[in-house]
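[Q] Does anyone have a clean structure-token version of this?
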Amino acid sequence: MSAPETAPSQTQPNIDMIGYGLAFAGAALFSTKGIFIKLAFAQGVTVEATLALRMMMALPIYLVILVGLLLRNEKLRAAVTPVRLFGAMGVGALGYYVSSYLDFAGLAFVSAQYERLVLFTYPFFVLLFGVWFFGDRMNWKLVPAMLVSYGGLLIIFAWNLTVEPDGLVTGTLLVLGSALTFAFYQHLAKRQMLVLGTMLFTCVGMSTAAVLAIVQSLIVDGPATYAGFTPNIWAIGLMLGIFGTVLPSFLLNGGIARIGARATSSTASFGPIVTIVLAVLVLGEAFTWIHALGTALVLLGSWLFARIERKSRARQ
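[A] Here you go.
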């Protein structure tokens, strides 16, 4: 009796490589977002207009996919009840409007490298929120990994505080707020996707966030602002909309749907490396030994977090 019972457990470590691949690709593309935002800021574009530009480029794509899904699939049309629709809209607004706006606003005060490292702590919030609000079990073995990552952040924060203190605390708090709201979004999004599916939920959520961002900018900046944008600004908005929004949103949500919020959040270690390389090469940001030490600790903590998380999932 014992042999047949142990056989399934031996195959558990065969993790969903497609799910992890989607999550890694989504994290890498999302990491280009800060670079495009900084380029827009350098052209004098406001936070609100930059976010709206991103959404203007992405919204038509989401609407086309949304209409196509509903026309082709009768079951999806039946699944879109008013309650589910408003639920998806609310979750999408939290993850892609509130979280994005806090992130964009934070980038007005801090470097792209530092923003990505602060935002990179959201897997720890995913873990804590799962335990506090969604009935997940606490894995105390993950705590040392969390402390290692936050130690790296503190090193870079302290260095920035002595070199460029203006707006550092404000920017850090804004980006942390973005990490918090995005972590909460991941748990809520998983539940929405179980009902509506990944594609439909992503289209509904992102379209809602896009409308909110565009309306906000039209109120704050005024429609005349967009008439004065140069082709270069529109090109930045296009890149931000496609490569920093549409593609990674489907990839990341696909990962969440296949492997869950905690596992998806633990795969984001490649993101900061992409941002750091691009920030140095494209934006000309400094990268000192302090940055190297802090970044190494953040990535080490994340790697330990992901490794322990995967082992825990395999045992379960």
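[Q] Thanks! Anything notable?
[A] Residues 1-13 have pLDDT under 50 and may be disordered.
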